[in-house]
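YM 10:42: Myb-binding protein 1A sequence, as discussed on the call
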Amino acid sequence: TNKKFKMAEESSKEVPSNETRIKIDNKKLMDQFWSLVSLDEGVRIESIKNILEELNNTNNKKEIEYTVQRLVKGLSSGRKAARQGYATALTHVLLCFDQINLAEVFEMMEKFNSVKSSFKGQEERDAYFGQLFGVLCLNQVINKKKFDSFNDISKKIMEKLCYLMKKKSYLREVVANSICDILNHTEFQFFESNYKPLLESSLMSGWKSCTVEDVMITLKVKSLYQDSLPDTYFSEHWNKSTLLHTKNLEPLSQVLRESTEISHPRVHLIWDVILDHFLAVDISKFQKFWKIIVEDGLMASTHERKFLAISLLLKVSPKLTIEQVPVVFCEPIIRCLINSRYSNENYLFKAVRDVLQKLQVQIMKNPNEEVIPCIIKALVSKGHFLFDSMTQTKTIEELACKIKTNVAVYTLWLQELFVRGTLDDQQQDNVNPKNIVMCRAFVVYQMLLLVRSNKSLEDDVVLSIATFLFLHGHFTIIKKCKHELHLKVVPKHSVDEFTQGMCKHRFTSVLVELNNHYHQQLTSSKDVFGGVAKDGEFFVTKIISYAKKLLDLQKYVVLSKAWLPKTYETFSNSIELINIVNGEKGEKDNAMKAKSTEMLFAHSTLQLFSDHEEAVDTLMDLHSCYKKSQIKKKKNAKEPHWTEVLTEILLGFLAQSSYLMRQVVDAVFPTIVPYITQEAFNILVDAVKSKPNQASDMLEGGKENEKDEENEKDEENDDEEVDDEKKSEEKEDDNEKNGDDVEDSENSDSENDDENIEIDEKLRADVKTALGDFAVNDENDEDEEEDIDMDTCDPKLLDCMDQALAAVFRSRKQKEVEKKEKKELKKSVIHFKLRVLDLIEIFIKKQAKDPKVLDLVEPLLELIRVSQSHTDEQYLFERTLGIFKNKLCSLHEYPLHSSLDIKSIHDRIERLVVAAKSASSALFVTYVTYAVVYLIRVLRGNSDIKEPSPIITRSQRKKKGNKEEKIQQTGVVDEERLVKCLNDAMAEFMTKRSSHLQPVLFVEVIQRFPEIGWKFTENLFQFLYKGCNNFRKVKACEMLKMIFSKKVFDMENHLLNIRNDGLEIFTKIFNESQGDSCTLKAKQFQDLLRLADLFIKLLAKHPKVKAQLDLKDLQQSLNVVLESPIAKRSNSLTAYCNVFLKSLKNISSSIESNA
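YM 10:58: structure's back
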């Protein structure tokens, strides 16, 4: 393809008749030219290096001439990246080889890249760009070498550039930029004598006839040579000696409007020069410039020029000062941004989206981070609080997340804005209440973003945000108070119930974020708590203290929901207890326990403000738990242990929709794990085993708080609930940010429900029954043309019909609601179980040596069995399986034997094997296998720690070694019982085709516990012959191979016990190979031969066993195999049988010689 392309490319160019082609034979050099057109810059650079290296090595004049000629030709190539590659290579070649005459290269460029009369549009364009790239290459070489002998060529280069700038419009900008670049390296004397006459037309064009490029070149000349040129040189044609004088803004505006093409709108390079100038002047001149050029110029013109105006935002954002932000982000531009994003049919819809996406990146390049809050204020004040929603972007949200400096100042502005309820402080009387709600919704969401995005916020700022939200969520200000920051101003517009709900929601979300804040100096220990201030105190405890202060200021603030005297008493008792716990000091465990208790009490105390009735009962139970935990001996055996009560409380928190309380549970539960009793543990296990109707009772406790806390689901970052809870929360967040009326949304939902009623046969029958005789018969629909006459019909009959129809639709609506509630309940139960599984995972990790972990095996397996068959419970299945397989069954720390109920563990293994027999899938048998292997490891595992044994001699050690090794391998396993259980299961698997068992159960036991596996050999030999099908026989063969590959204690005795059985079975199978009873395939039969060979060789390795071997019958049976049809069909089987026979003869002769 490349060769065809190049041939077409070369053939499309006219070659002069007098051109002499240069031919070279250097293939290594020739191959490099193809890589110069690569789109990969690295490949192009490597190719240039290789060309230079090859030319330096050969130093061949013809090769250098050929290289220059080919590179010059390639400048006019239309292929992507070709001009970049050839131009860069040409520049480096000219720089490296001084013998090349630049004047000849210039003439070569004129010859090879000239525009021919036969060229079409694209060919002509490529030729012009080839000329441009060529002269730029020469200019780069001249600038590097700086020889006076190049002056003539420099003048020719400038002449060429001036010619190209006037020739084609698409060349003007790039040529003008090239001229400016050349002028940067030119002394005034050379400019005056050589370049000035050529550029005279541009320098003297004036405002009336100039182009954008003329202004660009004139500005460059003015900046470089203003000291050398007379003052009147520019004023004669440009009104002022300073082109960018404020009096020249009107004509400059006319020129800049033409700087973008209608077909391809883009920002011209002149804007960089002009913006750099005006961004450096005082604010009044910049304001005048922006007003005339952008607001009254570009924004009052076509869509293309509006695009140019909004694109300028990307240019100026990295350089803006605080004073310039309100000028740049003016109302016309912001209105254009909002209106353009109203519909995707708008001309600038996609352009505005791209600009807003890039705007955040450009703003972050600004070294002054204080401009970010100013830009947010401008977008809100001159646009709308719902700017993000209207533009369908996250501009303000992402900018707010970038605020890192002066957060306290921005927070104070937000708080003042919340109190005013409007941006304009003067217009406080005639304000739409909905606008006030939107304003305050914007404020509280911004506060949340500040906490969420900045983990290193100062504690004072964090507390200011949290206490502000807490105050306006749960209290109403009735009077000013000079001593409290948030009470110094009473909101003129009262905080309505909807706004209070938003404040509660955002306050809870802030607490969630604070619980994820960790100070580095406090993280030296593994067990740390989030939400701790730098002074070591919980933020929530500080908020409780602030709440107490507010309750004491009843003249200034009142609770939104009045408390009962009992609530006040509970609140006081909780604060006293928190202070007591906070002052406890002692050992690490006690300190951690005190810290968790403080966190639990503080968050539970805050629940008084959302649901004081339930919170009072919870706090009373917590007080009781704390008192009992301080008592070492249990006084009343009938009373539940404090961990039981606390476990139920924690499960109650998990049942709530509050993610905050789940965070508290996750932090508190690990600290009480060492103290959990069997009864408390059973409560935890029962929560996982519970069915939906049982779990619903536990979830009912959290339903009362659900209305206040359902919005917290946007903070749910748990993997198990992301899909379900985040979707609902995103909708709720949008409602809050937009300040939408909840009632309106509910009404619209109900209308949609009515429109979407599906008409099925049951509904049709119910309606017919309600209408009675007036119902239309479906069969006679075409014949029935008369309607009910409402004037003659009995009104009582019509009322009865209306009531009957209303009852039908009411009943149907109720069924739909019940169906939806049932679905939501099932989802809630799944989420609840997932949260309980988190606690179980913590228990397994913390208490691996606790015998109670063994009680998790069967409940988790049952949960896996139930959930794997339901599509809506797939995540529950995966989560349970992950804990079961990777956490529980992978433990390598086991309870001590003295703490185990050995009989119950063997009973559990037997129940698991029975469960495997009725498994619904092969995978479930695998899961059962994990459990069986784990329980056997537990029985074999850690022995009791005893007193140090007395010193014994080596001989004594050797005598006891074998016995101790045997005891250590088996532990407390009842091998006889275990082997009987597994042998029975194996017999079912091997003899019953309908068996649900899978070989993985026995393979894993053999693989991990060879000493147990050796006790399966006697039965496995029988199943080689009695297996119900070939698959079972093959599996028995594989298991025996695995067993024979494992060395165990007292292996010789094992072989003596199974020697005769094995030889007898093999002989019997081989003798029947000629009959119809042999159903094995050749490959399967050969595997059986390999097993027999392995078995015989294993027997021969042990002298005692070898001495008793009699292999005559086996040899005769192998001769039968050689004559059998199965051996005749397989050459490999015959060959192996012969090898096996030879091996048997060698072993037999060895036995005879030893005898």
